[in-house]
Amino acid sequence: MAGEHVANFVSFRIDEATAKQLAVVSEAAGLKSNAWARAQLMKLLGSKMRAPTVRRSVANAELLGEVLSELRAHGRNLNQLARLANGSGSLVSVVADIEKMRSATEALMARVLDLLKIEEDA
Questions:
Q1: Taking the complete model, does pTM exceed 0.85, yes or no?
Q2: Which of 111, 67, 71, 92 lies closest to 79 in space, CA to CA?
Q3: How many CB atoms lie within 10 A of CB 61?
Q4: Rounded to whole angstroms, how far apart are CA atoms 6 and 92?
């Protein structure tokens, strides 16, 4: 069967210190430990194999859930600020809070877009 790719499962053990290092570097990369290790192995070997997009989406689902929870909290805060502004008749007292929310929301959106991108090396 020319051109057919068969996926093989690989597993191995690492010590506690290595596991902690792996957790730190993979979290910094925004990946689960096994996804980060797999991507590094593929790079090292020069493999052209690509992980299915669905797997990447599933791996990012937990992170996206956290971001959506934060966005819901932003929505609640915005509603509270709107009530405060409507009650006082002035936005002056809430401008700083609105600016903080805008900045935080932009950071969240950047995180979402980063999580949704398809990695070229995974």
A1: no
A2: 71
A3: 11
A4: 63
Sequence-ordered list of residues with C-beta below 8 angstroms from that of 36, at least 6 positions apart, any chain: 22, 25, 26, 29
Q: What is the spatial distance between Cα 78 and Cα 115, in angstroms, rounded to a whole number? A: 25
CB atoms within 10 A of CB 102: 12
Query: pLDDT of 30-88, one tens digit each?
Result: 888 888 888 888 889 888 887 655 455 666 677 777 878 888 888 888 888 777 777 76
Residue appearing with tokens 């990695």: 119
Largest Cα–Cα distance in the chain? 74
Asked whether the beta carbons of 36 and 46 are under 8 A apart, the reply is: no
Rounded Cα distance between 4 and 103, Å, is 48
Calpha distance 64→45 (Å, rounded): 30
